[in-house]
Amino acid sequence: MATPFDAILGNLGTISQLLFTVLFIALFFGFGQKLQMRQFLWEIDKGLRRLDMFRNSAKDLTLKTVKEIGKPSTDPGPQINVLMEQFLISPVDMDPAGIVGKIDHLLDVRDAKFKEDVRRIAPGADSSQVMNLENLVEASWALNTIYRIIRHFYLMGKKTNSIFIIIQLQALLPLIIQEAEAYLGAAKAFAEGQPIGDGIGPLVASRLMKDKEKRKVEKDVVVAETMMEDRRVIALKAEGPGGNVGKPGDAIKTIIEENVGKVSMVVMVDAAVKFEGETSGEISEGIGAAIGGVGTERFKIEQEATVHKIPVYAVIVKESIQEAITPMKKEIMEAGEKVIERIKSLILERSKPGDTIIVAGIGNTIGIGQ
Amino acid sequence: MSQPKPRSGSSIVITIVAAVMAVVGLYTIGLALNGNLDPTIQILYFTIAVLAFTFVVLSFTRMRRGVRIGAFTPPKVLSVVKCGQCSFKQIKNFALGDFVFKTLGKCTQCTTGDLSINGIYTEGSPKK
Ligand SMILES: [Zn+2]
């Protein structure tokens, strides 16, 4: 008698074939995406834990440094937590006329408040240490913010089960982690007051200023005069060795006005982001105001240069974003000498003896005096 | 790429799936090699086997890379000390409070020049 079992046994080939076809389709078409999404989520989770580790170590470093240098009488932890969550509301840009001034004002207020807060948390720190601590807190703030944003999108992706959010996050995560790692390196450099790659501009300016009489103009900018190839060179940089970028836009404006517009050229020296595959420490020459940031300083320089018809040249040193905010690499430091040579030839080609030239070293001057 | 952290849940599940796929692959290969089968079905089995093995291979190569969890090592920072008068030059480890153009007192070699820090840098790490 044929039992159902026999029937199954007799058709084993067909059944297994059917089974495998279904399994195949399920695994590679239907379930595959789900499986991949799981895998992506796990990867993001791993990355997120790493970012958490970064932000915690930056925070610990900040606390430790504040306690060591600042000698606070109370526990600075809660106050640092408040600083970590700080935010800035950018002005309305529906009617953009005059927005640069607004942003500039906002940044000034933020800067002053930040400095004031840090000084209160760390009463024992001297002025350049306050600057370094401020930079350190900012690096921790950046790490904290990166973590919060990534966590937000991770949880969003998980909640909505949206593969597009997850794929984007997974694709960007390695880059974000790399950047976070650089911020952690920056935090270490700031805690100890070491020059960073971005400091190449101030380093060049300080080499020009060496043993010359210095004076302060504008907010945290020092200026010195020197002679180069029979031209009067006015070098300027942010005041070091505390971590500071100063306001070179205002300083350049002041100097041009002091010289009643009789400036034959402005040369700006800055670090610039290289493309992947290019050599760090390579020098490149261009036209225009080489200065990063929100754009307020660049705006001022461009405006002043246009009013007085002064050409602005840029000499940049190529480096990666990571190199720009971590301790200065040897090849970048050595590029400084070549930059000075470049400035010399630029001056020879584009000006006459007796002319006045402004050389501005742009960047964070941490660990670089004058 | 060092990976000191133990493998997390994702790797374990992927390993299990990969093992299942390996079994599936072996089984289908066995079925396909069974001579008295319709050629189209044979081809189907072969395809499944190949795909299953591909999954196994891919999942293992994938696990090798993935997000690196290496310990962060701060770079070694050095200060270059130079004399303003003679050719004295010394490279020392960065000390807290060092900055470029900080003066460090008189030179030990010529006793007249002032020693100062001329540069602070880090040697590029070998990785990358
Ligand atoms: Zn000497």
Structural features, described:
The complex is a heterodimer of chains A (370) and B (128). With 370 residues, chain A is an alpha/beta fold. Chain A has 2 domains: 161 residues; 165 residues, Rossmann fold (3-Layer(aba) Sandwich), CATH 3.40.50. Chain A is 60% helix and 13% strand. Chain A has 11 helices and 7 strands. Chain A starts with a helix and ends in a 9-residue tail after the last strand. The mean pLDDT of chain A is 90. Chain B is 40% helix and 20% strand. In chain B, β1 and β2 form a beta hairpin. The N and C termini of chain B lie close together (10 Å). Chains A and B meet through α2, α6 and α11 of A and α1, α2 and β4 of B. The structure holds zinc ion. Zinc ion binds next to loops of chain B.
Features:
heterodimer; A: 370 residues; alpha/beta; Rossmann fold; 2 domains; seven-stranded mixed beta sheet; 11 helices; 7 strands; 60% helix; 13% strand; elongated; B: 128 residues; alpha+beta; four-stranded antiparallel beta sheet; disordered N terminus; binds zinc ion
From the alpha carbons, calculate the radius of gyration of chain A and give it in angstroms.
28 Å
Shape of chain B: rod-shaped
H/E element order of chain A: HHHHHHHEEEHEEHEHHE
CATH topology (fold) name of the largest domain in chain A: Rossmann fold
- The CATH homologous superfamily name of the largest domain in chain A equals Peptidyl-tRNA hydrolase
State the distance separating the first and last CA atoms of chain A: 104 Å
